[in-house]
Amino acid sequence: MxxxxxxxxxxxxxxxxxxxxxxKVFQSYVQTGSRPESGGILLGTVHDRGILVxxxxxxxxxxxxxxxxxxxxxxxHRAIARRQWQISKGTVRYxxxxxxxxxxxxxxxxxxxxxxxxxxxxxxxxxxxxxxxxGRNDLYVAMTAADRHQNQLKPYSVSAAIADRC
Length: 166
Ligand SMILES: [Zn+2]
Known about the structure:
alpha+beta, Cytidine Deaminase, domain 2, binds zinc ion
């Protein structure tokens, strides 16, 4: 199962790319059988019209894992985010959150929407929060703004973009 690496916002103003390393982390926690929900934070670099997601933290032993709920303990994830920020001299930053769902095509729960809104609202830099759900066959990718408005991203096809330009 190969997830799509490139995504675009519906207003075409934002491109997002998941690195191979990030996709590998997602794939290693796909919820099949009775595997619990997993999750972590997403780190990367922010550019004019794009976001490169370069790292996804793996669940730590402090996290609570249940089949339908992932509750992330901040300790390990926050330390990794701080370290990445330091070694990249401030270019690799916290981008958002990911977790798995036991659904083929994942869709956010009411609790997810509430939690993303809360996290987006308390970001100090005022940027939107990248919200990712890893399903069995598909990803759900959205940006959540501080006012809780959601902009769902769609898979970006490079061939379509080249055709557009001709
Ligand atoms: Zn969820």
